Amino acid sequence: MTDAQETAADTALRTTGGGPPDDDVPANGLPIPLLEPREGIPPVVETEDALAEVIAAFAAGRGPVAVDAERASGYRYGQRAYLVQLRREGAGTALIDPVGCPDLSGLGDALAGTEWILHAATQDLPCLRDIGMLPTSLFDTELAGRLAGFPRVGLGAMVESVLGYALEKGHSAVDWSTRPLPEPWLRYAALDVELLVDLRDALEKELDRQGKLEWAHQEFDAIAAAPPAPPRKDPWRRTSGMHKVRRRRQMAVVRELWTARDKVAQRRDVSPGKVLSDAAIVEAALAVPVNVTALMALPGYGHRMGRRQLEQWQAAVDRARALPESELPQPGQQVAGPPPPRAWADKDPAAAARLSAARTAVSALAEELNLPQENLITPDTVRRVCWEPPTPGTPDTVAAALTGYGARPWQVGLVTPLLVEALTAKA
Questions:
Q1: Positive or negative, the Cα torsion across 255, 261, 264, 269?
Q2: What CDD domains does the database record attribute to this sequence (predicted)?
């Protein structure tokens, strides 16, 4: 497309709600609906030949690349990607189907060294990693918004407040494993990357104006360098309503039902919650039914559930009932780290005083800097330093402790003086 064609296209798109705005805020103060991608909805890439063309186009593109992924959370088992959207100057927008093209490592290689722009990067990176895509550098527009002090940092809110455009978000929770994907969903997906580059550029300028750009770069580098999260230990303990389950035998019922449900969900490739709800698991754990008839009387196991299903859930309960005491799960205990803060006053009044002083100081500084406290320093890091303070509590030892807990240099520089003073607080 020539420069003249691009200018004409931009002019036409502004009349239909597409393309980047000329000013940060529209003249009438109202957001402009973003209705269509500037080059229209691209065809979905489903074959290796089509993927090869996209790889060549994006390798030849210019500047950073906007990246997004759509999952089928709540519908399918796991968190795999069912659509990947990309946009880059010189390449346009691409919509790739990871079902038809499950290996995108060639695309990842073609974009090596290119800055990726993602919104809430930690949500999408795991599923992108699974299909061979991992950035070496990135810009997270959600995290940038937090550091810049925006009160609402969802993509729609950011695009509206920063660029003056309104994104249609009606398809954010649909079943992206649906095939073929409906055109309105594809339009929504393409628009999600339409203005990411513009948003990135505007946020970079704002962070630079506030003196926070280096902070952001350190945060982005930490995300890009982070290894994959290890498998969660005892994931069944995260069952919603678990706080009601007190006895070890009841905990064993939760574990057996959760494990049985997970196997069924994985085999059927559906969300575990569609197989059996967390609420139903907890109900069975509290009652420990002795047979199918007793199980049927519980909420979540009514007449709509088939006999075969009821028998498999009762079998899980029976396994828990038959376990010897030595094999029952122990109450959840923190493997490492301080106890819950509510217990500090009784366990260690001096530590409670240190934590109170530290929280007050961190809160005040975060407010002064206009950013969330958890982005200034994680609450867990503050708790750990206050519970077991380094000896001696000098700036060097506190800074070393913060670094050891994963704090970035900008955080260490700002928070160390606060914690050094808080560590001298008396009960």
A1: negative
A2: RNaseD_exo (cd06142)
